[in-house]
Amino acid sequence: MIKKISQPLLIFLFLLIISIPVILPYFHNGYFPTHDGEWAVVRVGDMFRSLRDHQFPVRFSGNLNFGYGYPLFNFAYPAPYYIATVFHFLKFGFVDSIKLLFSFSVIFSAFAMYLASKEMWRSKVAAMISAIFYIYLPYRIVDLYARGSIGESLSFVLFPLIIFFVSKVLDNSRERRSLCFGAICYALLILTHNIMAVLFTPLLFIFIIAKMYLTKKDKGYGTILLFIVFSYLLSAFFWIPALAEKNNILLSQIPIADRNIYFVNLDQLLVPKWGYGLPDNADGFSYQIGIPHVIVLILALFLLVYVLFTKRKMYRDFSLQIAAIFSAVALLLILLMFSFSSVIWQIMPLLKEINYPWTLLAPIGFLLSLLAGFLWLQSSLMKYSLLILSALTIILVVPYAKPQYYFDKGDGYYLTNDATTTSSQELMPLWVKKYPIERTDKKVEIMQGKGSINNSLFASNRGNFSLDLESKSTIRVNTIYYPGWKVTVDDMPVAISYKNINGVMEFPVQSGKHNVKLQFQETKLRLFSDLLSLIGFMSLLLFLLVPRKGVKK
């Protein structure tokens, strides 16, 4: 009994210990500069305000964009900010909530990779090797200390968890809990980072098809279909409106960046370097895969070729077959990072929406970490090599795990930040021709006519005020219009015009005294998407909790 308790505890301590050097700077007072890390704090503050206004799901930011608002969370992945808001409800500050989320993303990804690798290779030591390579992937440190991408950091937790649960389902189609948890994790990936979900999905389907074919599982198609349906239903409230309404925003016409700038050179993938700036600058962040990780891929390829030509029967082993597929996919993803693959990026659906080829470093690192566990299963010489490479990747990467410098701006600084938290206004509605540069001192204005405005009160998703007009007037509310906004005057709906350079709401009101109310509501499409997610959630609960006929509780 003691051994059964002590071994999991030792593994837990091991995974925790290897995570500490990577996240230790996050426990320093204050924060530090990254490309997106401070925007994450601003966003979670705005998410908290919107939830406090009883807006759920949160779609329209009423406070950002200098108080003019814009549909931030209708397009920006919302899951990290919902989770960080939970930390804030537990009395953590907004800065500390984001720092905790980054820290937990490392710790939980170590445990997730351990589970996935152990499930894949049936070896605890192999699983620990994979966890080391996963935690000390150079791109992980880029996300933590240069880019500050909270969505990508959390995606590293979800990659191995999805593979772990799907693998268990493929081994036993009656695994209800694994199916449900796997569907939740895949739905969370869609809600956590759009690009990572797009890049990981082909890899997931390749794994599913390969394992079903290699293990002759010809009765699990219905179970896998159910997993996919649950996943997309649970996340439907986000991805359906985001795709359907993309034509409303600037991103539909102008890409965030020129993809051609960010294709890599071979030396950028292989030569160790470090920087905190933008990747096209001299001090730009690193594109390196990691020398130990590259060696793992080379060793795996040599081993697989050797087995193919010398031990054909051995090549029928499942672990060798799945490792061969992982190696081939990893090699293909590396090739896609070079400029000669630009045609593929231009013609492939969804892939053409991605502007940064170097985001492929995330799924590449995931696959190479799993391959490191596979190599542990081989000869004693390979085991010694893996131990050396594991130590080497820690030694090489730990020096990068530090910020440029620290500062302590406090939560108040981020709560009063008025920016859009986007790089190039890409989520701005197309009808906005003049972008706000400062807050207006009048939330409501009389553009034509005369009168007074009283008792004005606004939240992120609603507003009300009273009017005393001497003549028929045109009223302007300095909130950018987006489908879902409704205006009533004395409880009667009025037509909204937004054909002005600011793209804000205007409407006519007759003379006299009036009460005006504004409300941001779900459109029919969004309401349908919400309903799909609710149906998915209730169906998943019933599937998980209601026992099958003939099965004893």
Structural description of this entry:
This protein has two domains: 2-30 and 77-403, no CATH class; 444-524, Golgi alpha-mannosidase II (Immunoglobulin-like, Sandwich), CATH 2.60.40. The protein contains 20 helices and eight strands. It is elongated, with a radius of gyration of 26 Å. Helix 8 (150-171) runs parallel beside helix 10 (194-214). The protein starts with a helix and ends in an 8-residue tail after the last helix. By secondary structure, it is an alpha+beta fold. The chain is 54% helix and 9% strand. The model has no long low-confidence stretch (mean pLDDT 93).
Q: Cα distance, first to last residue?
A: 27 Å
For the biggest β-sheet, the strand order reads 2-3-8-5-6
**Contiguous helical run count:** 20
Report the biggest beta sheet as strand number plus sense, adding barrel if it closes: 5 strands, antiparallel
- How many structural domains does the protein architecture include? 2
Structural category is: alpha+beta
Beta strand count: 8
Coarse shape: elongated
